[in-house]
Specification:
Strand order of the largest sheet: 9-11-14-17-20-22-26-27-24-25
CATH class of the largest domain: Mainly Beta
CATH topology of the largest domain: UDP N-Acetylglucosamine Acyltransferase, domain 1
Number of helices: 7
Number of domains: 3
Helix content: 10-25%
Shape: elongated
Structural class: alpha/beta
CATH architecture of the largest domain: 3 Solenoid
Number of strands: 27
Bound molecules: coenzyme A
Distance between the termini: 34 Å
CATH superfamily of the largest domain: Hexapeptide repeat proteins
Largest sheet: 10 strands, mixed
Strand content: 25-35%
């Protein structure tokens, strides 16, 4: 069994799921947990997404308690007070998601750190997710927004819209232990932020991407990018994504790397690499590889350096050429900034 979770969600006026919140998603659970829930809800053996009503919660909680699943039993008990749609999701294996509840479960497995980026299939999820207004009154289908805004005004309230997007912010679903995020809207659900990660105001983290932790993020972690332990993404820096523009190489950074302020990486880098502030290293850029005396050894394309460790990449401020030297002084994170997250 890949995953199981009980959730509480939001549907639009047509009964289409907009989002689902899973307080305690399970990864690789005991198969008897899923069996117990299926039996208690009278669900058929193959259904992956099973809707249920608050009145089913007492029976479900009892079955879970009898089966020794105390945490899930307590959750089922608390769902008895729900005024919103309830759902149980059973994922026997990891195939491309076929419904909104499945996508939301997979995104939450990532943000709960139960699965690492690229550790779970998300193919086709954009086509499943609706464009949603994330508001002070929860998720609203954008098509239903004008009506809801009017209703709120008539009742003397202002409906405040935080963003219009397919993804919500991560912290509305889970705040994993030991992190700081200065501006929570900059981290989307599906991000994986390892313990000891600090995301400052200019930092950003997309879904299916993140940090091993500890780490400092003042730049952008694009979808699919993973950053190793002890690395520092300087202010406004960029990691190249694969969702648009034809770049299909997945970017990753190893441990103890420093991507300077306003720099960018379009190739994966190994451990202890430094990219000079302001330099964007792309796969096709010609790079002069220098020896310890500064003499030219060879000229390579950025892609030839992909995945290598101990690189110092800079743009020669006199000649304008990009140079690669051996990085002799890899960074160490400022302990004081990360130790108390
Ligand atoms: C690339 C970088 C790491 C080099 O720093 P460094 O290793 O400390 O190097 P130094 O500045 O001490 O320079 C060492 C030598 O290289 C030379 N040098 C450095 N950068 C150079 C460049 N771009 N072109 C030509 N020469 C350069 C220096 O002039 C110096 O030469 P010298 O020994 O003849 O005096 C640094 O410039 C940088 O960009 N750091 C990123 C910091 C950052 O953005 N942090 C995030 C904050 S949010």
């Amino acid at each position: 069994m890949l995953s199981f979770a009980l959730g509480i969600g939001t549907q639009n006026g047509q009964g289409d799921w907009l989002e689902v919140y899973y307080p305690a998603p399970q990864y690789g659970p005991d198969a008897t947990l899923a069996e117990t829930v299926r039996e208690a809800l009278g669900a058929d053996r193959d259904g992956e997404v099973v809707s249920f009503l608050p009145e089913h919660c007492a029976g479900l909680a009892k079955a879970l308690r009898d089966g020794g699943f105390t945490e899930q039993a307590e959750l089922a008990e608390s769902l008895a007070d729900a005024h919103r749609p309830l759902v149980a999701v059973f994922l026997a294996e990891d195939h491309a998601p076929a419904s909104v509840p499945e996508v939301y479960l997979k995104l939450q497995l990532l943000s709960h750190r139960l699965v690492k980026p690229h550790g779970i299939k998300l193919d086709g999820m954009f086509g499943l997710l609706k464009n949603i207004a994330w508001t002070s009154e929860g998720a609203i289908d954008v098509e239903e927004l004008p009506g809801r805004q009017l209703q709120a005004r008539l009742a003397g309230r202002t409906l405040s819209v935080d963003c219009v997007d397919k993804f919500p912010k991560m912290v509305d679903y889970v705040v994993p232990k030991g992190i700081r995020i200065a501006d929570t809207a900059r981290v989307r659900l599906g991000a994986y932020l390892g313990e000891g990660t600090t995301v400052m105001h200019e930092g950003f983290c997309n879904f299916n991407a993140g940090t091993e932790g500890p780490g400092m993020v003042e730049g952008r972690i694009s979808a699919g990018v993973f950053v190793g332990k002890g690395s520092d993404l300087g202010g406004g820096c960029s990691t190249m994504g694969t969702l648009s523009g034809g770049n299909n190489v997945i970017i990753s950074l190893g441990e103890n790397c420093l991507i300077g302020a306003n720099a960018g990486v379009g190739i994966p880098l190994g451990d202890r690499c430094t990219v000079e502030a302001g330099l964007y290293v792309t796969a096709g850029a010609k790079i002069a590889v220098l020896d310890a005396d500064g003499a030219l050894v060879e000229t390579l394309a950025g892609r030839d350096l992909a995945g290598q460790s101990d690189l110092l990449l800079r743009r020669n401020s006199t000649s304008g050429r990009i140079e690669c030297l051996t990085n002799k002084s890899a960074i160490a994170l400022n302990e004081a900034l990360h130790a108390h997250n």
